[in-house]
Design goal:
4 helices; mainly alpha; flat; about 90 residues
Length: about 90
């Protein structure tokens, strides 16, 4: 899938939510008491909450929040895997 197709799914004003979720995920990852499997759920929940706060309650807001949280996690994994592949 092309990155432009993914970007077109997320409302441009929610890019700040994607960035905030990426930073939040990085901070949580460094927290020793939070298991790795919880990070995606925490980031997704925060993304939905921030999106609903920014654009109001509704199915579109929930969907946009899930997409923003998922994109933050996905983008983080892409960067991590590229670095891992470059080290080999």
């Amino acid at each position: 899938m092309d990155w432009n197709n993914i970007w077109s799914l997320i409302d441009p004003k929610l890019l700040i939510v994607v960035a905030a979720c990426w930073v939040l995920g990085t901070i949580i990852k460094k927290t020793p008491r939070v298991p790795d499997w919880c990070i995606v759920y925490i980031v997704s929940a925060v993304a939905v909450i921030l999106t609903v706060w920014m654009i109001g309650w509704g199915p579109q807001a929930v969907l946009q929040g899930v997409l923003a949280g998922a994109f933050a996690v996905y983008a983080n994994q892409i960067v991590k895997q590229v670095k891992k592949g470059a080290d080999k």
